[in-house]
Amino acid sequence: QVHLVESGGGLVQPGGSLRLSCAASGFKFSIYDMSWYRQAPGKERESVADIGSDGGSINYADSVKGRFTISRDNTRNTLYLQMSNLKAEVAAVYSCKRRTYWGQGTQVTVSS
């Protein structure tokens, strides 16, 4: 059974950093492309970044380029999203995705 469990969210001050993790289980993680999405209150869910199965073929939403870095460790079955220089507008629930499977999400709040 596919399980995706995000962690690492929380409250951070503007300009701060967070690293989100998505622990995957129940499938062969290393052969699947993975993605991060986010949904802010009252807004549509949007793609943030995606990464190929071998860590290549990385794409970012224009709004996060230069501030977010997606990566993965196939030996640990874990997907990461490093977020830096955070601003209030990035606050949302961040979820990882593998095709039709979603994690439960982790809340990111940016406030002083």
What do you see in this structure?
The chain has 112 residues and is mainly beta. It contains no helices and 11 strands. The strands form 2 sheets. Strands 2, 4, 5, 6, 9, 10 and 11 form a 7-stranded mixed β-sheet that branches. Strands 1-3-8-7 form a 4-stranded antiparallel β-sheet, with no helix packed on it. It is globular.
Strand and helix layout:
Blueprint: E1 3-7, E2 10-12, E3 18-25, E4 34-39, E5 46-51, E6 59-60, E7 68-73, E8 78-83, E9 92-98, E10 101-102, E11 106-110
Parallel strand pairs: 2-11
Antiparallel strand pairs: 1-3, 3-8, 4-5, 4-9, 5-6, 7-8, 9-10, 9-11
What composes the largest sheet?
7 strands, mixed
Q: What is the number of strand segments?
A: 11
**Estimated structural class:** mainly beta
Fraction of residues in β-strands: over 45%
> What's the tally of helices?
0
Distance between the termini: 40 Å
Q: What would the average pLDDT be, to the nearest integer?
A: 96
Overall form: globular
Low-pLDDT stretches: none
| Estimated helix fraction | under 10%
Order of helical and strand elements: EEEEEEEEEEE
Q: What's the gyration radius in Å?
A: 13 Å
Question: Which key features would you list for this structure?
Answer:
single chain, 112 residues, mainly beta, 7-stranded mixed beta sheet, 4-stranded antiparallel beta sheet
Short description, anyone?
The chain is an all-beta fold.
